[in-house]
Design brief:
The structure holds two protein chains of two kinds. In chain A, 65% of the residues lie in helices and 0% in strands. Chain A has eleven helices and no strands. By secondary structure, chain B is α/β, with parallel strands linked by helices. Chain B has two domains: 12-90, 2-Layer Sandwich (GMP Synthetase, Chain A, domain 3); 108-170, no CATH class. Chain B is built from three helices and seven strands. Chain B has helices spanning 12-24, 66-80, 103-111, and strands spanning 42-47, 53-57, 87-90, 114-115, 143-147, 155-160, 166-170. The longest helix of chain B is centred in the middle third of the chain and has 15 residues, at 66-80. Chain B starts with 11 loop residues before the first helix and ends with a strand. Classes of the chains: A mainly alpha, B alpha/beta. Chain A binds chain B through residues 36-37, 39-40, 43-44, 46-51, 53-54, 121-122, 124-126, 128-133, 135-136, 138-140, 142-143, 202, 205-206, 209, and chain B through 59, 61-65, 91-97, 125, 127-129, 146-151, 153, 157, 171, 173.
Chain lengths: 252, 173
């Protein structure tokens, strides 16, 4: 595969991760347990959408077919979305939202830090900004993990269920498939397999404070990177894409 | 409308200085008591190969909704100063840091009731780290964080336990 094609796919995967997760968090707007948390979740969503925009714009430029950030974000069919499955998982209760965000933030912190060393100047620049932002996401969600895990019997139990429900989607984040390997060989991609231990260490440390344990996952679900999704993505897209489908080419 | 600046006759450094002054006055749309220059958002004002003015701005946060508005406002300020064919470009690297906020900018923030950011220094934010933030009203260090995320991406919510006032903290980045 030509470098540009690989880079385009690599960027699209990352951009889709951020867009879909941002959309999920946005569903909490006006519904979070407290006003401060409403602001926090939407602030995190805003960071993610900003990162997604940078990535889509760059992907569009790399592709060279004249597609801009909006067209890439809003007009592709479900099978063309390449996000990891974890980001499309439903918000569920607050424990599910927090565990999902915590798992991802604990991954994104080392991921963007390593990406700052990318040979690709644009990716390195996006990473330098994102690194600073995800540090806040990790700290914020880690505090909630402790508060809920070491909280009441009810909150603890819900955290246990969220951990058990979401652990099977974490494996996909660390997999180096052919595209990822080509990106690493090309000098611009991050070797995510090498981040697994660090992720585990962060997660286990925080869960320890929270009187929780990381469940053992015998089996890891995957497919998102190849466009094979859980039933949830289609529902997200029906909302996300509504305006562009109803009024093609609409701009603000 | 000011007179149109003739790039061919004017002295280059003087033109750039004038363009900088015009762009630097643009207020931040969210926190209008500080300018884009105070915040370090305006990175440079140069003349390009064709003699056109090129202003470079950088976003504070990737998703800051004010970024596009700021670019537009800087462009308009340059045009009103006579640089009709000026351009504004957004640059991501090096990434903006609160260390670029000028001392004057920090003082203006404080006077407006927003605690200015501490120096980011080289210390990595620990997982459960807390920063001591002084109350912008009474100066007390007896403050507590209410939420890491506030009314805009760049601010956190704090509360002073001495004077009982809630306040925004411009968080370190």
């Amino acid at each position: 595969m030509a470098k540009d094609n690989t880079l385009f796919t690599y960027l699209l995967r990352l951009a889709d991760d951020h867009l879909i997760l941002s959309q999920r968090l946005g569903e909490w707007t006006g519904r979070a347990p407290t006003l401060e948390e409403d602001l926090a979740l939407t602030n995190i969503a805003l960071d993610l959408i900003g990162q997604a925009r940078s990535l889509y714009s760059y992907a569009g430029a790399v592709e060279g077919q004249g597609r801009d950030e909006d067209q890439l974000a809003f007009t592709r069919p479900e099978r063309d979305y390449l996000n990891a499955l974890i980001v499309e998982q439903p918000n569920g209760d607050f424990a599910h939202t927090i565990v999902r965000q915590f798992f991802i933030a604990a991954f994104m912190v080392p991921f963007w830090r390593e990406m700052e060393k990318s040979d690709d100047e644009q990716l390195a620049a996006i990473a330098a900004k994102a690194s600073k932002e995800v540090a806040y996401h990790l700290r914020h969600t880690a505090e909630w993990v402790v508060r809920l895990g070491d909280g009441t019997e009810e909150s603890h139990q819900r955290m246990v269920e969220a951990l058990e429900g979401l652990i099977i989607y974490t494996g996909e984040l660390f997999e180096n498939d052919a595209i990822a390997k080509a990106a690493i060989a090309g000098g611009y991609g991050v070797d995510t397999e090498a981040l697994r231990d660090e992720w585990r260490q962060t997660v286990v440390q925080v869960l320890g404070e929270a009187t929780l344990e990381l469940p053992n996952a015998g089996y890891m679900q995957k497919g998102g990177r190849d466009g094979v999704h859980t039933e949830h993505l289609g529902h997200i897209l029906s909302e996300l894409q509504y305006m562009q489908r109803a009024y093609p080419g609409l701009t603000w | 409308m000011a007179e149109v600046v003739d790039m061919k006759t004017g002295h280059d450094a003087a033109i750039r200085a004038r363009a900088w002054d015009a762009a630097a006055c643009v207020p931040d749309p969210e926190i209008p008591m500080v300018t884009v220059a105070d915040l370090g958002i305006l990175r440079s004002v140069e003349t390009d190969a064709d003699g056109r003015i090129l202003a470079r701005v950088t976003p504070t946060y990737s998703g800051c909704p004010a970024t596009q508005l700021i670019e537009q406002m800087v462009l308009e300020a340059l045009q009103q100063a006579g640089f009709e064919d000026a351009r504004v470009e957004s640059v991501l690297s090096p990434a903006w840091t609160t260390d670029w906020i000028s001392d004057e900018g920090k003082e203006k923030l404080r006077q407006f009731g927003i605690a200015p950011p501490e120096k980011t220094s080289n210390s990595k934010r620990a997982l459960f780290g807390e920063t001591i933030v002084n109350c912008p009203r009474c100066g007390s260090s007896e403050t507590e964080r209410v939420s890491e995320f506030g009314s805009t991406p760049c601010k956190a919510l704090h509360r002073c336990t001495a004077c009982k006032e809630p306040f925004d903290y411009f968080k370190c980045l």
